[in-house]
Amino acid sequence: MPTSAQMQAYWMPFTANRDYKQAPRIVASAKGMYYYDEQGRAILDGTAGLWCVPAGHSHPKIVEAVQQAIATLDYAPAFQMGHPAAFEFAEQLIEYSGHKFGQVFYTNSGSEAVDTAMKMVLAYHRARGEAQRTRFIGRERAYHGVGFGGMSVGGLPANRKQFGPLLQGVDYLRHTALPENRFSKGLPQHGAELADDLERLIQLHDVSTIAAVIVEPVSGSAGVILPPAGYLQRLRQLCDQHGILLIFDEVITGFGRLTTPFASDYFGVTPDLMTTAKGLTNGVVPMGAVFSHPKIYQTLADSPAGIEFFHGYTYSGHPLACAAGLATLRVFKEEGILHHAAGMAAYWETALHSLKGLPHVADIRNLGLIGAIELETVPGKPGARAMAVYKKAFAEGVLIRTTGDIIALSPPLILDKSHIDVLFAKLHDILAHPE
Ligand code: PLP
Fold first, then answer.
1. Spatial separation of the C-alpha atoms in residues 368 and 266, rounded to whole Å
2. Measured in angstroms, how far is the CA atom of residue 152 from the centroid of ligand 1?
3. Given pLDDT bands bounded at 50, 70 and 90, which one contains residue 230?
4. Is the pLDDT of residue 72 over 90?
5. 175, 221, 276, 406: which to mutate for ligand 1, most atoms within 8 A of CB?
6. For the segment 365-389, what is each residue's pLDDT rounded down to a tens digit?
7. Is the same domain home to 347 and 391?
8. What is the pLDDT, as a whole number, of residue 312?
9. How far apart are alpha carbons 45 and 36 in whole angstroms?
10. Domain boundary residue among 312, 334, 356?
11. What is the strand order of the sheet 401-403 is part of?
């Protein structure tokens, strides 16, 4: 356990620091489906860390690849210079996307991927002589990371209110969490027409000002909000009709969460830009990536000679991250991770929805290997009820995640039925006996 001086020194992200430091939760190691604390107690991981460990913890093939990489090439400059794994990984990612995209741009996180995609959009329109297209359309209750771009198009009030006016000229679609869809299994049926909000915003701002729409195909951090059937298709159609670029933020849905490589595969809708991170390296080394349609790269590459896009990071395409990413793709293929996940999805859905009817359960939602249990909020104490469940579950050996009063579940994709049984038996037990 850290000393109190150590505890004081670490300003923890997205954490109630004072509350946490009174009763810290520490994990010391991890393997497969489990974390272990300093005493060796196993904690079943119901959230794949922070949605980022699809192939399970400390996968030996990924560990070995990173060990070899660090012993060979510790770092390579990312500007005007390259190393083989960065090119190899980019090609493999394009292949993994089914060649729906043409290029990959590396970042170090999902937040950086979002800000990078937004800058690509602006540079693209400018290069085409439409520099007045600067307005982004985000969505209420969206999470696009914590950069100023991502915060500005994001729709979570708590993430915005401390930081002033943010990027100007952004507008928002309504979110798609509709009461009539409560307890839907899989895709909700009501609300595809909410995509027509885009028409309204086009009327309001004039289409000539609108650069791009950014949405999470399935939102995660806002509490698992699903797109109604037909909604994403409608958004794509409207964007095409009006020359607006469409960005899918696939930071949580990428790399198998819906049992397909990307959510765009699941929905059969291809965006112009796709942001990814997390599962890209199985969470082992920080990395993000923006996948781009060739027309965007080509438009910028056709601009006068010189650097085409004044953007990049010291650690773009870091050798360790590329090694981890290449090994992750190999593991996905060799171990049939998506196939396995697809085989678990129906069992997962049934187990999750068996919690319906327990005290304070207001809604249950699922898609692929994602689940959400929304609890009634204690009046005047938002988030308190779910946080109590979270603490109790951790004490009893299960890691879940909460956002407000929503429990969000996103296990490693390697889980089997016995893990699903343990996870939901524990949640059943806790929810059936509220404090
Ligand atoms: N976009 C989405 C949809 C996310 O869920 C997240 C993180 O959860 C991010 C962006 C930000 O990613 P990062 O925390 O790697 O910056």
1. 9
2. 14
3. very high
4. yes
5. 221
6. 999 999 999 999 999 999 999 999 9
7. yes
8. 98
9. 10
10. 334
11. 361-367, 370-375, 406-409, 401-403
The minimum-distance atom of ligand 1 relative to the CA of 286 is: 15
Ligand 1 neighbourhood includes 386 CB (under 6 angstroms): no
What whole-number percentage of the chain has pLDDT above 70?
A: 100
Range of the domain at 234: 63-334
Residue 111 Cα to ligand 1 midpoint, Å, equals 6
4 CA to centre of ligand 1 in angstroms: 30
Span 276-310, pLDDT tens digits: 999 999 999 999 999 999 999 999 988 777 899 99
Which of 148, 248, 278 best tests ligand 1's pocket when mutated (most atoms within 8 Å of CB)?
278
What is the reported pLDDT for 304? 77
Number of neighbours of residue 11 by Cβ within 10 angstroms: 7
Q: Whose CA is nearest to atom 9 of ligand 1?
A: 145
Domain boundary among 311, 334, 357: 334
**Confidence check: pLDDT of 31 > 80:** yes
If you measure from the C-alpha of residue 286 to the centroid of ligand 1, how many angstroms do you get, rounded to a whole number? 12
Alpha carbon distances (Å) from 336 to 46, 63, 342: 20, 19, 10
User: Is residue 375 domain-shared with residue 294, that is, in the same domain?
Assistant: no
pTM of the model: 0.98
Has the ipTM of the complex gone over 0.90? Answer: yes
Is the model's pLDDT at 253 over the cut of 90?
yes
Residue 410 CB less than 6 A away from ligand 1:
no
Q: Which residue has the higher pLDDT, 72 or 222?
A: 72
Pocket test for ligand 1, best of 50, 111, 401, 402 (most atoms within 8 A of CB): 111
- Residues 179-197 have a mean pLDDT of 97
176 lines ligand 1 (CB under 6 A): no
Return the number of other C-beta atoms located less than 10 Å from residue 287's C-beta. 28
CA 150 to ligand 1 center in whole angstroms: 9
Half-sphere CA count of 240, side-chain side, radius 13 A: 9
CATH number at residue 109: 3.40.640.10
Give the pLDDT score at 435.
73
Same domain, 206 and 135: yes
Q: Say yes or no to pLDDT of 195 above 80.
A: yes
From ligand 1's centre to the CA of 282, what distance in Å?
A: 14
CA distance 39 to 89: 38
- CATH number for the domain including 366? 3.90.1150.10
Ligand 1 atom with the smallest distance to the CA of 142 is 3
